[in-house]
From TrEMBL:
It catalyses: 2'-deoxyribonucleotide-(2'-deoxyribose 5'-phosphate)-2'-deoxyribonucleotide-DNA = a 3'-end 2'-deoxyribonucleotide-(2,3-dehydro-2,3-deoxyribose 5'-phosphate)-DNA + a 5'-end 5'-phospho-2'-deoxyribonucleoside-DNA + H(+). Residues 234-268 form the FPG-type domain. Gene3D superfamilies: 1.10.8.50, MutM-like, N-terminal. This is DNA-(apurinic or apyrimidinic site) lyase. It holds the Pfam family Fapy_DNA_glyco. PANTHER family: ENDONUCLEASE 8, ENDONUCLEASE 8 1. Keywords: DNA damage, DNA repair, DNA-binding, Glycosidase, Hydrolase, Lyase, Metal-binding, Multifunctional enzyme, Zinc, Zinc-finger. Belongs to the FPG family. InterPro entries: DNA_glyclase_Znf_dom_DNA_BS, FPG_cat, FPG_N, H2TH_FPG, Ribosomal_uS13-like_H2TH, Znf_DNA_glyclase/AP_lyase, Znf_FPG/IleRS. Its cofactor is Zn(2+). Its EC number is 4.2.99.18.
Length: 269
DNA sequence: TAGAAATGTTTAG
DNA sequence: TAAACCTTTCTAT
């Protein structure tokens, strides 16, 4: 489930559980053995996310993780379970209260040890991350407003905007009544200011809830309580289902290799 | 048991 | 633009 909110949350959790203590780092699967040996037993300074990237600092060395489409961390307290399956990286430490803590990483696109300059090179190619307090929304606008490319494609481009994935893209465009096919240059400053502010709100809510919920309570079938999975989105993965606002069938199409979802009436071209 | 799909990125052409 | 890659989970046979 990795869009930016997932990584932000992971960074925070891992910092709370592991920072300031030596971490036993292994790679039971074997594909990260050399990297694990570099940082094994060292004190973790902290974990930070930027966009969909995760950076765990051990002095001058940083473990960089990108979950890709289906990478995932699991974890818990006490003694870790026997390693099974393709377990790329495991952390074990004495947690803040003295009890053991552990976390397991499976299926990431990237899991590697980087030097400071290598980390900086990754950061340099990322656009502003709406979850970072001092992110510069204007930097994204300059890219968008100068481009003939569809805004639906620009929002997914990590050099334009860091941390937005397929769900936030579809939902943000719906909430603002914008066709995914509108050229970036047809997005003006006022519209972008509204979209950015909304993204900040939505992604912070994602951090808080641990999942993406974009529907307003009045647009859900059940207005009270925790929204069901069926009720959490306006258009994402709702192909052929009626739009929550106008009842038109939600449409889907491939855009830059990814499934795009939108309502042709609420988001007219 | 096999196959498809999944909130992503990189590389090759 | 297409294909490759990483792994799990759900669905169909």
């Amino acid at each position: 489930m990795p869009e930016g909110h997932t990584l932000f949350r992971l960074a925070r959790e891992q910092t709370t559980q592991f920072a300031g203590r030596p971490v036993h780092v292994t790679s039971p699967q074997g594909r990260f053995t050399a990297g694990a040996a570099l940082v094994d037993g060292r004190v973790l300074d902290g974990v930070r996310s930027y966009g969909k990237h995760l950076f765990a600092r051990f002095g001058g060395d940083t473990v960089h993780v990108h979950l890709g489409l289906y990478g995932a961390f699991t974890g818990g307290t006490g003694t870790p379970p026997p390693a099974r399956g393709a377990l790329r990286m495991r952390w074990v430490a004495d947690g803040p209260d003295g009890a053991g803590v552990w976390t397991d990483l499976r299926g990431p696109t990237a899991c590697e040890v980087l030097t400071r300059p290598e980390v900086d090179a990754i950061l340099a190619r990322l656009g502003p991350d709406p979850l970072r307090p001092r992110a510069d929304a204007g930097r994204a606008l300059r890219r968008i407003a100068a481009s003939r490319t569809a805004v639906g494609a620009l929002l997914m481009d990590q050099t334009v905007l860091a941390g937005v994935g397929n769900v936030y893209r579809a939902e943000l465009l719906f909430r603002h009544g914008i066709s995914p096919f509108r050229p970036g240059r047809a997005v003006d400053e006022a519209l972008w200011a509204r979209m950015w502010a909304d993204l900040v709100t939505l992604m912070r809510a994602g951090v808080r809830l641990g999942r993406i919920v974009t529907t307003r309570p009045e647009d859900r079938s059940r207005r009270r309580g925790v929204p069901t999975r069926e009720d959490a989105h306006y258009v994402y993965r709702r192909t052929g289902e009626p739009c929550r606002i106008c009842g038109t069938d939600v449409r889907t199409e491939m855009m830059v290799g990814r499934n795009l979802y939108w309502c042709p009436v609420c988001q007219p071209s």
